[in-house]
Amino acid sequence: MSPAAVITGLGVVAPSGIGVESFWPAIRDGRRSLGPLTRFEPNPYPVVVAGEVHGFEQSEWVDGPIAVQTDRFTHFALAAAKMALREADLDPVDVPPFGFGVITASYSGGVEFGQREIERLWRNGPEHVGPYQSIAWFYAACTGQISIGNGLRGPSGVLVADEAGGLDALAGARSELRRGATAMLVGGTEAPFCPYAICCQLGHGLLSPGDDSTTAYLPFTSRAAGFAPGEGGAMLVVENADAARERGARARAVVAGYGATFTGPQRYDRSAEGLERAARSAVAEAGVDLAEVDVVFLDALGDGRADLAEFEALRSLFGGRLDQIPVTAPKTGYGRCYAGTAALDVVAAVLALDHGAIPPTPNVDECRFDLDLVTGPAREGAIHTALVLSRGLYGGNSAVVLRRPEPNEGGN
Amino acid sequence: MTRRVAVTGLGVIAPGGLGVKAFWELMTSGRTTTRPITSFPAQGFRSRIAAECDFDPREAGLVTAEIDRMDRYVQFAVVAAREAWDQAQVEVADPWRVGVCMGSAVGGTTLLEHDYVATSGNGERWLVDADLASPFLHRALSPASLAAEVADAVGACGPVRTVSTGCTAGLDAVGHAARLIEEGRADVVVAGAAESPISPITVACFDAIRATSARNDDAEHAARPFDRDRDGFVLGEGAAVLVLEDWEHARRRGALVLAEVTGFATRSNAHHMTGLTTEGVEMAEAVRQALDQAEVSSADIDYINAHGSGTRQNDRHETAAFKRVFGERAHAVPVSSIKSMIGHSLGAIGAIELTACVLALAHGVIPPTANLDTPDPECDLDYVPHTAREEDLRTVLSVGSGFGGFQSAVVLSHPERS
């Protein structure tokens, strides 16, 4: 049996904080980081509340020449990757030359950069399109730049599966570790707030039209009216447990199990069964019993039918014990960052395992389902096993089980 | 204990050949399909040539609702998937055990650009007018919608995802699909890739870095991999879909196995987003890993389907990579690039190339490299110029190289290899 995949480093660029040292207190304390969409002005679109990353100094993280060749989503990814490596205390030169790879998930690519270049094309002519459009807009930009920026020559990948893609990417990294890689950087980031990106997103019909940042995104309540979109995301260092132990790294969590199903775009009547099956596969692969799950990090789409489907999935999974299992969605404090969102959920779950505290679901104070939704202060207590659920806009249902490492899985 | 992966169905939409039969005829004819661009008025662009599909969605069997909803590259994919699914004749007992893994590099750019022009008033408005957008525009933003449409076309409810590693996406999608079966996450995976990149923004972005050929007055000879006079790739479009199946699952139901996917690996050059080294170290490493997984040595490879894009850098890069892996034997292994005939359809081409490899194994014929009149002195291998070659093939290798530094390798074997 191959060694476990352990998470040893976390890098975060989120509306609620840059770096885990800011992100954890923000989500633990249920801080509200949604606000008006200010990335362009005026805002003529029927989406007012969003999770924007403020205070991100790109020059701190991205070399000048690379910064101009890349979109904001890649700036976030490069920064998050750097933080994750720093947190893992891992220098890529210490990893075998082809043993360190990168997998990122994406939803909208470098769309702001793309809008600028396509504007030049149509306003001024083809010769005005710059040389970096070909590498800045496409979905693979972050994986490529992280690989180049950090000298990572191992296996690489790029997944586009919307929100669920973040969990699929983590499973992909684990698969590469089982096939011989030593370490992987994995995650996803988004920067979907230029006018054309908003124009595209309006069509999916799930953006909340609310104009009050405390009530725009209220999943599982009777006032659910869609979600507030967010920007940012996370990158994680995942390592072969033996390699991590050998170098004395601290394993923060074990990526223990994964499952994925498909039930079609917005077919929520079927997504209940899809989510349930994905979760069962993940739990089975982790070799744990459902009774051992200490907390569930929810997809929390914020659409009445979708929330009902998620509740039904949980009820089928946990039966009569459901009201004893804490469930939470810290993302209501900062928005759904598409492909970045599940990566942030995983970070939140790892931090919860680490600190023995379940962060709450900000802004939500009533729940229309019979769920133990954590609201108010963080819930303290030892957590050993977390289940993370995510659904993609186009019908993917993914689940990951994270566990606290046993002492023999790469402790201090 | 790894499960083996059988190929039991194929579907293709390629320039000059809609459907597997027409495609294979083209592949063995050595004809080229590159021509002046007809998809949009290309005056003012540096490269004005492409390999286009003469594709009528209605004739291809799509109904109005599908045509309205699906971008061109998704239409290609769904039609190819139906062809492959029909051939495989999978009787699905459990849709939760059927997955989809599709590749695309630039996804819905055709619709994204079309609606951008409409909503921005030809680029005049930064704050685009959302009321002028198509109701399906949101699908164009995320190529996750590609895999979703293919999943619906075949009734898949297992793992479904889109892979978007630039120009290696087609190889990677099939490779990842094989892993879903090896790891027991699915019994059947519909795998492939699709691209319809022939639109002004994509042509302009390759113009800007002079990656594409400017041989505008001689379109049919413009794609010239390994030739001394090559001057870049010619943009193409299309799709290919392979039905992959757990070997035992296929055997039990008596399915005709066309080939076996035996090896897959990726590496990155960590060098440059678009540039390649002259050494080919990382591609060679990907090939070695794929051979290892297939449990074959370089001596067992009977044919290499090259990336062969026809850029100055690429063809030397991979020639160096092959020499690194095969040593002296590199000169004895036939290598060819079908991009010489059907252009470079970015994320789709890897899946189209794997389809050509499966057909090459089945028919014992190696597709040629068209337009190879005067080999580049630095490209001195046997590139099967002009004419297809009959050869008994047991194990073949297909490689790809993509923006971002991606290097991928897939090994396919004859079903009766052992």
TrEMBL record, chain A:
One of its GO terms (biological process) is fatty acid biosynthetic process. One of its GO terms (molecular function) is 3-oxoacyl-[acyl-carrier-protein] synthase activity. SUPFAM superfamilies: Thiolase-like. The keyword Acyltransferase applies. Gene3D superfamilies: 3.40.47.10. Keywords: Acyltransferase, Transferase. Residues 2-404 form the Ketosynthase family 3 (KS3) domain. Belongs to the thiolase-like superfamily. Beta-ketoacyl-ACP synthases family. Transmembrane segments: none annotated. PANTHER family: POLYKETIDE BETA-KETOACYL SYNTHASE 2-RELATED (PTHR11712:SF322), POLYKETIDE SYNTHASE-RELATED (PTHR11712). This is Ketosynthase chain-length factor. The lineage of its organism: Bacteria, Bacillati, Actinomycetota, Actinomycetes, Pseudonocardiales. PROSITE patterns: KS3_2. Pfam families: ketoacyl-synt, Ketoacyl-synt_C. It comes from Umezawaea endophytica.
UniProtKB/TrEMBL annotation, chain B:
GO terms for molecular function: 3-oxoacyl-[acyl-carrier-protein] synthase activity. It comes from the Bacteria. GO terms for biological process: fatty acid elongation. InterPro entries: Beta-ketoacyl_synthase (IPR000794), Ketoacyl_synth_AS (IPR018201), Ketoacyl_synth_C (IPR014031), Ketoacyl_synth_N (IPR014030), PKS_Beta-ketoAc_synthase_dom (IPR020841), Thiolase-like (IPR016039). CDD domains: KAS_I_II. Transmembrane segments: none annotated. Residues 2-414 form the Ketosynthase family 3 (KS3) domain. Gene3D superfamilies: 3.40.47.10. The keyword Nucleus does not apply. Belongs to the thiolase-like superfamily. Beta-ketoacyl-ACP synthases family. Keywords: Acyltransferase, Transferase. This is Beta-ketoacyl-[acyl-carrier-protein] synthase family protein. GO terms for cellular component: cytosol.
